[in-house]
Amino acid sequence: MSGWAATGWAATGCTSTVRIQTGAPWRGVGWKGKLSNVIVLSDLPGRPCPIAAALEVVGDRWALLAVREVHLGAHRFSDILAGTGAPRDRLAARLKDLVAAGVLERRPYLDAPPRSDYHLTEAGRELVPVLDALEAWGRRWAVEEPAGG
Predict the structure, then answer these.
(1) What is the pLDDT of residue 97?
(2) pLDDT value at residue 149
(3) Which string of b and e fits 112-124 if b means at least 16 CB within 10 Å?
(4) Can you give the three-state secondary structure of the chain, one letter per residue?
(5) What are φ and ψ of residue 66, in 5° steps?
(6) N or C: which end of the chain has fewer CB within 10 A?
(7) 15-51 pLDDT, tens per residue?
(8) Which range scores top for mean pLDDT: 55-59, 88-92, 97-101?
């Protein structure tokens, strides 16, 4: 957590002195000073907490599934769409938010017509262990293995 002042969430009841930045319509974590308008966690509704701040950025189902798909190698919109099953308009909005938050970046791959694909940034790559933990939790608690499997 370089550049961040923070206290442990469990020991403090999830209170913290972490400051987050935002430049998007939602309150999200700024990545390495790329976004402006620094706010304090206490500006978030409810208990001020870095978990709440992270969920402002990636707490939507389609956001996390988009990150999963990009991590698994789907870089073009159509492939991410197929892998997530998200409605087209919602996925487009989430990808835009994730790019604005610095979780994903767009890279051009075609000039005419102009086309870009999506890649994880450092911040996006640091979400992979979170996805791994969610997968493990989901396997244990949220899904039932088929009979005979």
Answers:
(1) 93
(2) 60
(3) eeeeebbebbebb
(4) CCCCCCCCHHHHCCCCCCEEECCCCCCCCCCCCCCCCEEEHHHCCCCCCHHHHHHHHHCCHHHHHHHHHHHCCCCCHHHHHHHHCCCHHHHHHHHHHHHHHCCEEEEEEECCCCEEEEEECHHHHCCHHHHHHHHHHHHHHHCCCCCCC
(5) -65, -45
(6) C
(7) 544 444 444 444 444 444 443 333 467 788 888 888 8
(8) 88-92
Place of tokens 């099953």: 85
Q: Which residues contact 80 (CB under 8 A, 6 or more apart)?
A: 66, 69, 70, 74, 91, 95, 118
Confirm whether pTM is higher than 0.85: no
